Amino acid sequence: MLGSYLPALVFLALGLVVGGVLTVLNGIIGPKRPGTVKEQPYECGLPSEVTSNFRFGISFYLIAMLFILFDIEVVFLYPVAVQLEAFGLFALIEIMVFIFLLFVAFVFVWRRGALEWR
Amino acid sequence: MSLIAQVQAPTVDFRGLSPLIALVVGANVVLLAGLLRGAGVQRVLVPLLAAVTLIVAGALSVAIWETGDVEPLVQSALAMDTLTLSMSLLFYLAGLATIALSLRSSAVGEAGAGEYYTLLLASISGMVVLAAAENLITLFVGLELLSIPLYVLCGSAVRERASLESGLKYLVIGSVGSATVLYGLALIYGATGQTDLGRIAAAIGEQVEVGDPLLLTGIALTASGLAFKASVAPFHQWTPDVYQGAPTPITAFMAVATKTAAFAVFLRLFDAALSTNQVEWGPALAALALATILIGNVGAIGQRSLKRLLAWSGVAQAGYLLAGVVVGTRLGLQATAFYLATYLVMNMAAFAVVIASERVSERGDDISSVEGLGARSPVLAWPLTIAMLGLAGFPATAGFMGKFYLIDAAVDGQYAWLGVTIVVGSMISLVYYLRVVAAMWMAPDAPPLAGPVRRMSPASGGSPEADPRAQPETVAVALVCAALTIAIGIFPSPLFDLAVQVGTSISGI
Amino acid sequence: MLFEQVLFFVAAAGAIAGALGVVMIQNPFYSVLALVGHLVALALLFLLLRAEFLAAAQLVVYAGAVMVLYVFVVAYIGGADEPLSPEGGAIARLGPLFALALLLELTIAVGGSELAALESAPGTAAPGFGSPAQIGALLLSKFLIPFEAASFLLLVAAVGAVVLARRRRGLEEAGAEGATQVAREVREPAEPATVAGASGEAR
Predict the structure, then answer these.
(1) Using CB atoms, which residue from B4, B9, B35 is nearest to A108?
(2) Long-range pairs, B198-205, Cβ under 8 A, ≥24
(3) What ipTM score was computed for the predicted complex, to two decimals?
(4) Which of 3.40.190.10, 1.10.10.10, 3.40.50.300, 1.20.120.1200 is the CATH number of C1-83+125-135?
(5) Which end of chain C has fewer CB within 10 Å, C or N?
């Protein structure tokens, strides 16, 4: 019954093995010469080690929230897209309504400046 | 692939869906209009567009009015029957009143006018979906569409700590309620194998035993979750805190419209889908109604904040309303719908006066802020007096007719003791309703506060409009609602006729 | 068959362990991680029920996106130093009791109706069940209204997120609105007092 998932399982196993082996090998055979420059974040980004009372900016929250919304949009669009041929024009119209409402959300978010990093 | 082949594109009845389409389109227009710059846009155009949306949706609802058990739309997702449409009209009226009351509220400025009114319209559209839901999935989506905008609206005065606290509390408690409903709906689906309310009704007693434990647990969880939304005891504890902290126009909207929506879905779910189980859920809900009436009325007695007092009074009123659901009869359905309409006008009148007086008083919504109001500005004192007497159920007010109808339904449905409880509860309620009336007419003007004066926070009003004439729209809402309270009390027959038409919407009872 | 049963018990144990971890671990970061484990185990259970698309969506939306938001919020509030439950009180002690009562009730409910089917052969899913195609067909027919309402709900959520995070540059610049102006004069906190303020300062 679950035989159809075999390729997915193989893929998962391969990913785990390759990722795991490379990480472990890196730790074993890689040369270790730590220095202050190496501890710095690369070009941009957050310091790699933080104390427990370190706080993220609220901008992260907003970006993550908006990411979820448009992520869910894609999840909804995928099954409907499969039915585009069977339902024809009707599916197209309904999907356009769906996308239009989220387009309004996008315009709103953009015009309010929520996409700009502060 | 046989399952897929037989699914057909549904016929979309645009006529039946027109009020909902109007609301969604209106909400989008309001949101985009709110992005335009200029004080005129924010203060005039955006509220005007929101009001026009509600009026159009209301007109469309009247246009598609049809009595009887109407065929559900879009493969039985929504039923635009008289129950839905009458409740929708109440939502629209509450929305219009809220827009008028919000015009001078600083919460609008803080959240942004476009955002504020869009969230209001979205919440109303969720209420319509919820009231119309003929399917468990639609029901839950409607419930979320109702709730999520309200969480934000409660916290919309973002510079006020109380408002944020209110929003957060409502979010946490409301999510627990929603999750409980979802759990219950899942168990009902698990027991019956159906999501359509009509098919659930058909399955109970046929494929599923009436006393099936899975089904009964599902019913119990759904009722508990909805009780959170309707602030029925013992799920009411959030109500005073949230009502007190939220911007007062939003409190008024929640007190009236959310409760109406919760009872609309109570009526449809329990009277239409689960009516076979009435022997099981009837006594349980009756016990909740008894507890709610007593707890609400006793809780209101000691309150000094008018918003908290109205919150506790709202808890008690939810108990009265639940009596109409308990009996599971057509008379109960009619009485609940009738009482919801009267509840709307009485509460809106009271909240309008509270808003008008808290904006000019340094005491906020404390009961001392209305002391001497009768002498100071009778145009505000009279509506509050009428609202208080109406909520207490004095003769010649709408509240009397509503309670009379509910007691009649309770006695007719073999729940005479619940009718007696309503009478006892009303007697207890006189203590706190009359205390407000006495404060207005008998107490002398409150002396100016000694010592450090409560900071006049702009977010809760506090503009220098000492004269009620400076906020005519608030006074107008108060006067119109008070006039309606009296009018329904003296000439109840038009509203009775409407309630009878609402009673035809569910055929099984 | 045996493999599926083993997988079921692994996933079920994982789901319960994850859920217990969420409520019992004191450090909020590890709590979130336990929730991720719980959600992955749930996805596995969906997979065993042939709800393939649902399992994938569960991973993409919950384990992927929602948990990232949780981590950000925990990082924003800065949780670890503050104890999660400051004081006990009657509610903290009654909570587990109510949970136990609910567990008993649900056990009776499920036991009374469904355990009878334990010995019988498992139901067979129709071909195509749980596939994106079937879910798409349902979204376009029976659940068309919830589908479109969901899109409106996402719009509302975007508006709500922006309101609460106070990203209203357009408004702040327009500045002519009386109420906004007055309010701004009173207090303009350096750090937006949203989530942290509300949770930390709530009574």
Answers:
(1) B35
(2) B198/B72, B198/B76, B198/B134, B198/B272, B198/B273, B200/B136, B200/B273, B200/B274, B201/B272, B201/B273, B201/B274, B201/B275, B201/B276, B201/B508, B204/B274, B204/B276, B204/B277, B205/B276
(3) 0.90
(4) 1.20.120.1200
(5) C
